[in-house]
Amino acid sequence: MPSVRIGDVEMHYDEAGSGDPVVWIPGTGLAGSMWDTHQVAHFRDRHRCVTVDLRGSGRTVGGHLPPTVADLATDVIGVMDALDLPPAHVVGLSLGSAVAQEIALLRPDRVRSAVLAATWSSTGREKHMQRHFTSRLYALENGPWTSTGSSPSGCRPRA
To answer: Topology of domain 3-120, per CATH?
Structure first.
């Protein structure tokens, strides 16, 4: 897996195929190789697929931890710059989708389109993680729950 130095981060990435670039950004703790079996295998015939290991995951090393979403976006933009990619389709899963959103906000000239899977509307990572953690704790203590409204106060145990 090749790498490129972005500041104090050694960013690992992989490439397959040729054509319009697609940058694949994994979720928390996942390596870019998560995309290989289905997505890259399907798209590499028509696209240049670039998968990245985010700071703190896969083979990427360096940089302060925990990073902000803006840090991760800057890292990925650095890979895009190092590979001299034209505007790319950017695909993210979970945290990767927040990174894709941040790339589009920081460098809209680098993003041709964005696919955001399992995303959230704000890059306020701490609040998102707190909500996620709280819902997991609730399920552990009280069993699965369903939503009866749009807020956590509308959640109740399943009957």
So the answer is: Rossmann fold (3.40.50)
120-159 confidence digits (pLDDT tens): 766 565 666 666 656 666 666 666 554 444 444 454 555 5
d(CA 24, CA 65): 22
- Cα–Cα dist 89/92, whole Å: 10
Q: Which regions in the chain score pLDDT beneath 50?
A: 146-153, 155
CA dist., res. 52 & res. 48, Å (int): 13
Q: What's this model's pTM, rounded to 2 decimal places?
A: 0.78
Domain boundaries, the chain: 3-120, 124-159
Q: Which two tokens stand for residue 84?
A: 């001299």
CA angle 108–70–113, rounded 5-degree value: 30
Token duo for residue 91 = 């695909």
119 close to 93: Cβ distance less than 8 angstroms: no
Task: Supply 6's token pair.
Answer: 């972005």
